[in-house]
User: Fold Membrane protein from Actinocorallia aurantiaca.
Amino acid sequence: MRPVFAALALLALSACGSQVLSAAQTERLERDGVDLVLVYLVEIPGYALAEQSLGVIGEDGFGASYTDGGGRVAHLRVERGAYTDELCAGPFTDAPSDAPVTCVRDDVGWYRASNGRHEYIAVSGDHRLSLNAPLDDPDRAVLGRALAEAEDRFGDKARFGSPPPVRLSDPSPTSPAPRGDLPTIGDGAPVHPSGPGG
Assistant:
């Protein structure tokens, strides 16, 4: 079953432009504890995926780095959890805690800049994606577009924002399937008629 799954994952990941994760890389990520649902790839003009950087972030998140060949590095992180304006105003990783932070929201998500770097953070379902790069290249528009067009391992565009609310007229997504063996009277225990021999 695992070789079949790995082959399917390889085929799906090939949908993200020229960046392809091999079956061995996919298996290693899963072995290291990465939830493959959190594996996304981005396309940043002038940058290439640094394959040795692929790894687990936190308990089951995913991280990858992209390099431009001239010393610039961009970091993609995908982790479970929400994101808030308060977090946006907080300090950057690997930056002095007193470094000023610019934080604004737009159509992509939260945009932050501090200490010579900038990043976009966006929410997709129950997890958040962040793309962090040097402030001078790529510029804000390119960085935002790269994150907005992030593709998950199935080649789908990231579904940013909150899911639509379930209306009362909608069927409940957790309604149980009809069983047919539950009595309409009594304590509701399943009916198990005894056969020959008890």
